[in-house]
């Protein structure tokens, strides 16, 4: 599946400076070895039937934060509960406390990706079955569609029709979108589904 690349403002300024031949500073090294942390915490996360989405060490001095984003495996379509996040956080904290030999303290943040996160991996799509998605194709405008099935070659969807206010939702015939035709997609929040 094609992945849309967007630069944040810091990355954009750095690219502009580099294009102008201006010397840029070297990126800061994380305050902690994230690969060692990843190796230590993945077994804890898996005990709860979850996967590690991302791991980011940022800040310096007293403002150091270790951000960990977790989610359920692709077999589950429900959202992570706050109780589960708290339990995983306690497990991760215990492992990190054992590995922390006199290092300066840092803030641990454990969270879920959120309801409207970008669908960038096949397991994200599988976790979004039967949900309404906002999809943008590589050659077209964005549209809303109901996700029916995730296949090796792509996804089966039904595009949502425009209906007047008060009328029930209706959808066009099912179609298959190949992975390489999808530029971006995310879950659309539904309040009355």
Provide a descriptive summary of the structure in words:
With 193 residues, the chain is of the alpha+beta class. It has two domains: 29-111, 2-Layer Sandwich (GMP Synthetase, Chain A, domain 3); 122-187, SH3 type barrels, CATH 2.30.30. The chain is built from four helices and eight strands, in the order H-H-E-E-H-E-H-E-E-E-E-E. The protein has helices spanning 9-19, 34-47, 82-99, 122-126, and strands at 50-58, 65-72, 107-111, 132-137, 143-150, 154-159, 175-178, 182-187. The radius of gyration is 21 Å and the shape is globular. Its main location: cytoplasm. InterPro entries: Ribosome_maturation_RimP, RimP_C, RimP_N, RimP_N_sf.
- Strand proportion: 25-35%
CATH homologous superfamily (4th level) name of the largest domain? RimP-like superfamily, N-terminal
Identify the CATH class of the largest domain: Alpha Beta
Tertiary shape: globular
Distance between the termini: 28 Å
State the share of residues found in helices, binned by percent: 10-25%
Which features would summarize this protein structure in a list?
single chain, 193 residues, alpha+beta, GMP Synthetase, Chain A, domain 3, SH3 type barrels, 2 domains, five-stranded antiparallel β-sheet, three-stranded mixed β-sheet, 8 strands, 25% helix, 27% strand, disordered N terminus
